[in-house]
Sequence to fold (494 residues):
Amino acid sequence: MLALQGDFREHAQVLRDLGASVDLVRRPEELDRLDGLVIPGGESSVMDKLARTFGLAEPLRAAIRGGLPVYGTCAGLIMLADTILDGMNGQQSLGGLDIAVRRNAFGSQTASFETDLDIPALGVKPVHAVFIRAPVVETLGPRATALATLDDGRCVAVEQGNLLGTSFHPEITGEYRFHRYFLQKLVVAAR
Amino acid sequence: MVVMTESTSAEQFGSSRVKRGLAEMLKGGVIMDVVTAAQARIAEDAGAVAVMALERVPADIRAQGGVARMSDPDLIDSIIAEVNIPVMAKTRIGHFVEAQILEVLGVDYIDESEVLSPADYVNHIDKWNFTIPFVCGATTLGEALRRITEGAAMIRSKGEAGTGDVSEATKHIRTINGEIKRLSSMSRDELYVAAKELQAPYELVAEIASTGKLPVVLFTAGGVATPADAAMMMQLGADGVFVGSGIFKAGNPEQRAAAIVKAVTFYDDAKVIAGVSRGLGEAMVGINVSDIPAPHRLATRGW
Fold:
């Protein structure tokens, strides 16, 4: 669990409830023993700065290139995107997902909302999704696959090999299916 | 007769989950007071998780006196235009029209704040009436619960704003967390009495007794001036920190702001905190809370 800033405790709780053993990561030397990483919701520009200042960004990029399974929600999705639109000046991502993400795509907090999404990959029961100053996937490259879209067609969940990203926050709604889906990737990757 | 029902796929705005959710995303972060777009730029560059737009920092409000009100909409617009991170702004306690104005300006969070002059000495704003979320100050658990009952989606312990003296912030976060711990050890018959004493609904009190925490995010504010102050608040159980006058009333705001951000992330690592505390130049001069006559203490505003 990347624990530089944001709602990492909520993610850690969901993962522990599903039987995973969770470490909070803030330093490069803590990356070595991970089978997978979750990047939480929070402020992506702050995570980016702290990751670079404390020497985490480069090792993380290398780990992602090397196939480390990573799941990012909201700010975490931005961190995983190859391209950030409307980012802060000089903002960098870790990359990995062949997508362009628009930061804060809906506007100010009064435009934040919750809604139900149909996500066939997770079963017939819709996913109740909370969008908070959320990003959307504006361009989907050939290597990435859309998992969920809003009614207007905008993509809000993607998958690419060992990487998973959502614009919304399953960790605060009691929705466990994304984390379970991600943990299955870890098990496969570990084989 | 046509009955309108809300379809399950309809988008829902301004729900408690959405309001409280933004505060969840700010956790482990620093929210900085700024009075100009240039200061907002410095704050964002230093790693602030949000900025609080206001006309005068608390230290100046204290020094200059007079009635302190909501900021000029032009100032707020200029700060919103400058940064990508969330922008908060302050309304006077009970001034629901200032809050209506801030909502249409498109700020992300409203602080119903004791730092400004109260507009109503009886009622706080009915925050359920708004789509935009509110943060409110509290010195005790009872005060926090009354604000949550009125619809606050985030609580900040008050401290004593504009002093650079962290002692009141310490007192308030310790008080709130201590009272939560006490609730956790109570039986149901005792919780009924506790609810009465806290002047808060029984259901909310019972929920906190069973979860051991507030249902909303709890930040600390009021007197934080150094990286060590900020880390101490985190070790005492705060989810994050507001820094008001402490940054832009200090010698080297850029460096101090960045140092406080790092100290909050590594709040439990004294080596990192020692490292970022070096060479920051002069901290805000400040004023000891014990030297401020009781009627001039801001924390006593709100009830």
